[in-house]
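Figure 6 in text form: structure in, sequence out.
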C-alpha cells in the first residue's frame, strides 16, 4: 500500500512538472506570436519565461528527491524496528520458557547461547545507529595512530567468522607479496567499523554460500587498497553508487529477505572520506558477485603519502 502511494506521488510530481512546463511553453509561444512587433517586450518575456521554466524544473526535482528521501527513511525505520524488535522478542520468549520450564542443563545452555547471539545482534544494531549519528555530527579532530592493516583485517575476519558461524575457509585473506607491511594513519575503531561492515555486507549478500576473498595491495605507490570479493547476489550498474547513500538498500529478487538498516555502506564511505580515502563497488551484474575496494593513503614514516600526493597536485 505504501509503495503504491509513493509511486503515485512520484508520478504526480513528475506529471505536474511536465504539464506546467508544456503550459508555460504554449502560453509563451502564443504571447510572442500575438505581440511579435514589440521586440524589447518579447525579449523580456523570453527571459522571464526561462526563469519560470527553471523554477518549475527545480521545484519538481526537489519534490521528487524529497519523496525518495522519505521513502528511504520509512524503509530505514521499518528495518530498525524489525532489527530491534526481533531479538528482544526472542530473548523474552526464552526467558519465559526458562522461568516456566527450567529443563535440563544442556537445554538451558542452548537457550543461553541463543539469547547471547540475540543480544549481540541487538547491540550491533544499536552501535551502527549510534556510529552513524556520531560520524555525521562530530568534528573529526581526534587522535590518530599508525595502524598496520593486515593484522587489523585478519582480526575483523576472525570476528565475522564467529559472528556468522562460518568456517575458516569461507573467508580468506591473501598474503601480501614480499611480506610488505602496509600502514595507514587513522582511527583504529573507525577503520575496524568500516572493514567489519564490508565483511558483514559480503556475508549477508551471499545467501547461497559464503566464499569471500580479501586482498591488500598498493596502488600508484601511494595508496593502500583493501579488496573484498564475494560470489553473492551481485549488483546492477545503476546501484553501484546508490548503495553508499544513507538509508539506501539495493533491491533484491532473492527469496531470502536480507536484513539490515541501510547504514553499513554509508558508514564505510563516511569513514573512508574522513581518512582521505575512497570506497567503490564493482560487479558484473546480478548473480556474479561483487568486489568492494577500500582505498586509503599509505603511511610511510611520518607522512600519509596518498594525502601528500593529493595536496601537491592541488
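Output sequence:
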Amino acid at each position: 500500500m505504501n509503495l503504491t502511494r509513493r509511486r503515485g506521488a512520484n508520478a504526480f510530481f513528475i506529471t505536474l512538472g511536465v504539464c506546467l512546463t508544456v503550459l508555460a511553453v504554449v502560453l509563451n509561444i502564443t504571447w510572442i506570436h500575438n505581440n511579435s512587433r514589440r521586440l524589447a517586450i518579447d525579449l523580456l518575456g523570453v527571459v522571464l519565461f526561462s526563469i519560470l521554466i527553471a523554477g518549475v524544473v527545480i521545484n519538481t526535482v526537489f519534490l521528487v528527491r524529497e519523496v525518495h528521501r522519505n521513502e528511504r527513511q520509512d524503509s530505514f525505520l521499518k528495518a530498525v524496528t524489525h532489527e530491534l524488535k526481533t531479538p528482544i522478542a526472542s530473548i523474552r520468549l526464552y526467558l519465559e520458557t526458562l522461568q516456566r520450564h527450567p529443563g535440563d542443563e544442556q537445554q538451558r545452555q542452548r537457550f543461553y547461547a541463543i539469547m547471547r547471539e540475540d543480544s549481540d545482534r541487538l547491540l550491533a544494531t544499536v552501535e551502527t545507529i549510534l556510529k552513524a549519528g556520531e560520524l555525521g555530527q562530530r568534528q573529526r579532530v581526534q587522535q590518530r595512530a599508525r595502524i598496520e592493516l593486515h593484522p587489523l583485517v585478519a582480526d575483523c575476519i576472525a570476528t565475522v567468522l564467529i559472528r556468522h558461524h562460518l568456517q575458516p575457509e569461507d573467508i580468506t585473506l591473501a598474503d601480501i607479496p614480499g611480506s610488505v607491511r602496509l600502514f595507514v594513519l587513522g582511527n583504529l575503531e573507525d577503520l575496524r567499523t568500516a572493514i567489519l561492515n564490508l565483511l558483514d555486507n559480503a556475508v549477508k549478500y551471499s545467501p547461497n554460500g559464503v566464499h569471500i576473498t580479501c586482498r591488500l595491495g598498493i596502488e600508484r605507490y601511494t595508496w593502500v587498497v583493501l579488496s573484498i570479493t564475494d560470489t553473492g547476489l551481485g549488483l546492477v550498474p545503476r546501484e553501484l553508487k546508490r548503495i553508499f547513500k544513507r538509508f539506501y538498500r539495493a533491491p533484491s529478487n532473492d527469496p531470502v529477505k536480507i536484513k539490515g538498516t541501510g547504514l553499513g555502506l554509508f558508514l564505510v564511505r563516511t569513514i573512508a572520506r574522513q581518512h582521505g580515502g575512497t570506497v567503490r563497488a564493482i560487479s558484473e551484474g546480478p548473480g556474479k558477485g561483487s568486489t568492494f575496494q577500500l582505498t586509503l593513503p599509505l603511511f610511510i614514516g611520518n607522512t600519509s603519502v596518498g594525502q601528500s600526493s593529493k595536496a601537491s597536485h592541488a
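Caption detail: The beta strands are 145-148, 171-173, 183-186, 212-219, 223-229, 278-282, 291-297, 299-300, 303-304.
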